[in-house]
Amino acid sequence: MSRQNLPAAASLAQWETLLSSDVVPIAVEPLAGRSFSGSFSSVVAAGGLRIGTGRGGGLQGRRTAHHVARTEGRYVVAIAPTAGSALVVGEDWREMALTAGSFVLISTDRPTIFRIENYCATAIVQVPWSMLLARTGLAQERFAGLFAQPLSLPGAGAAAIAAGYCRAVAALPDDYAADRIAMGNHTVDLLASVVSLISGERPLEGPAMAQARERVLAYLREHFADSGLSVERIAAACSLSRSTLYRATEADGGVVAALRRVRLAHARTLLLTGSATIAAVAARCGFGSERQFYRAFQDETGMSPGEFRAAGHAASN
What pTM did the predictor assign? Predict the structure, then answer.
């Protein structure tokens, strides 16, 4: 959690440091003849998702190519003003007015200027590219193309629902920080749905779904030994949304079941052809613990790993 309220006479350098550390690197400049003020509050959820609110006036924030290069990771920032107005200028110098009720998506990998003359209050949701890529299933090149410039979204339909949800979650008081975090995944899902609609991409069917399944299984066979492998990582690596990932592996009982079978198949080979301990086999096959491995193996084969090894050795003698 970070919070800073600055009176008009406060140092712009302090405000710039706050935004650069909590959001993205940025240069903040005063506007001549305007009274500067600013406040910012945010919480970070799992995976780098950030949800917060910002208020300010009499300032200009400038993200140059230098700031972009200093940013760790790539993010999409959803800006949903609740009061006042601001101006966003994209890389092509096209200006975009922000007012209460508008909704804009901006990628942090592009230079951008934000200008607030009098006052603007807004909800801010910052989502890692990887989260949206995993949920939309879009190719990275296609995804990047959508955000070549700040993306102004319509004030109706799915975009309006997503904007309203972002505002509601961000507006929760600081005492409800845990609620913001808990509702974060739903925020990402809504934004992913909006991005998918904008892209015009349709769900995979027929041969395309079969190819997706083969891509997933090939990835599982290559990375099964990684105990930290998650559904999110698999989806991102295969350029699929979570829903498409589950549909692609439906015949396999789902992606978790498919991964478990790949791990157990390799475990059976190690048990019959090597002398590694049960714990070592579990670790080499990506299981988080020997107990987890034992239970999965027992459910799959009806025998413990030790019993399976003994039976295999007896049969070969």
Answer: 0.61
